[in-house]
Amino acid sequence: MRRATIIIAILLGSLACFAQKDYQHGYIINSDGDTIRGLIEYKNWYKNPNTIFFKQDASVERKEYHPFDIKAFFVKDELYKSAVIDLNISPHKIADLDANPLPVYRRDTVFLQTLLDGSKSLYHFRDKNANSHFYIYENGFEYLVYKQYLTTVVKFNNAEKKIGENLKYKGQLIFYLRDCHNIESKMNSVKYQANMLANIFNYYYRCTNKSTNYSNDFREGLSTFGIVTGISLTSVDMGYKTGISSLPLSKSTSPTIGFYYDFELARTRGLMLINELVYSNLKTEGEYNKGGSGTVASTVKGSFEYHYLKTNHMIRYSVLRGGILFISGGVSTGVVLRKSFSVKEEYSTGLISSREFKPKNYEIGYIAGLGSHFGRFTIEARYSKSYAITDYSATQRFDVLLKYQILKFSR
């Protein structure tokens, strides 16, 4: 347990060390409409920023800009525009909903994230409470209206509270995108979500044979699915309570193979959740002599073969951009698919007796890793410690794994 604490502390310390300011090349458009290129502190914003920091080169002091200071800024393929908007401040949590189907607004000046820019444009704003709001532009920024509210439905003389939805945004979009003759037929299934709204705009541009000036590949997170394979070197310490703690067991070398499903946490700097389903096994044996010099000599022999189906659940953090270097840590669990074991004592008199042994049908442990990602491939070295074979034995593994990505998709 102490070793697990140390490993976790090292991982957290590494995160802190590498959580440094990230300045990326970009530009701002000032209030006069001039484009000024330089460096912008990029924070991979989940919620729209209230301010940004900009400097024309690395040698000068940074300057802070608010939405009312500049017209727009561009960094890391993301375009933000300053806008005066009507912000829907109605309750969004289910427990706080009211019975009013009409939104309550507050006038505000913000940075809107551009999802598509062209003759018809779509913008996104995620507020401090992580609620998403969407806007179009036509002689000013117009809010696409959506609101949940409480309504009462009477059934068999019983009044039930239900959640109603103000879906005015659908009518707004039908009118806004009316150049496409069949846009209305596509609107029924469009939910108030960034990817679905962006898709209907993309359909509009295909329908009208027009092109966009800018399009953001907006995603809430990237998921990958693939194969994991590798080799494992395993050592087992039987533990003093097993009665065979002196048994020197050989190291076991075995293959590991399985599948993984990893997904990137939305708008984080390189954090991914790692999920793996793998097959592994261990085969080990050993013996030691006891007695003699006036007592009956004997040899204690033990052999163990375990086959596991395991799940690994980890958090991976990219220390260097793009996953060139990453660290990971998490937990593993496993169930025994098949096992065989033998523990016996052979006496010099020719007598053979079986030693008591209570096997375990599952294991649980912790993992720490270091690796690199390039293209479709990921290579990683891992250390893991689990409690397997018996309740008192500890298993340590050193793995070298290679992962190959088969699928990649946005959620």
Describe the structure.
The chain has 411 residues and is mainly beta. It folds into 2 domains: 77-215, no CATH class; 222-410, Porin (Beta Barrel). Helices cover 11% and strands 56% of the residues. It contains 4 helices and 22 strands. It has helices at 2-18, 168-176, 183-186, 194-208, and strands at residues 23-30, 35-41, 52-55, 63-65, 70-75, 78-88, 105-117, 122-126, 132-137, 141-143, 147-155, 158-166, 214-215, 222-237, 252-264, 271-292, 295-320, 325-347, 352-354, 362-374, 377-387, 394-410. Strands 1, 2, 3, 4, 5, 6, 7, 8, 9, 10 and 13 form an 11-stranded antiparallel beta sheet that branches. The protein has an 8-stranded antiparallel beta barrel with strand order 14-15-16-17-18-20-21-22. The two termini are 36 Å apart.
Q: Which spans have pLDDT < 50 for at least 5 consecutive residues?
A: 14-19
CA-CA gap between termini:
36 Å
Major β-sheet annotation: 11 strands, antiparallel
The CATH topology of the largest domain comes to Porin
Summing up helix and strand content along with how strands pair, one would put the structural category as mainly beta
Give the overall shape: elongated
Strand content: over 45%
Query: Class of the largest domain, according to the CATH hierarchy?
Result: Mainly Beta
The total strand number stands at 22
CATH architecture label name of the largest domain: Beta Barrel
Supply the number of helical segments: 4
Rounded to an integer, what's the Rg over CA atoms? 30 Å
Taken together, the total number of domains comes to 2
Helix content bin: 10-25%
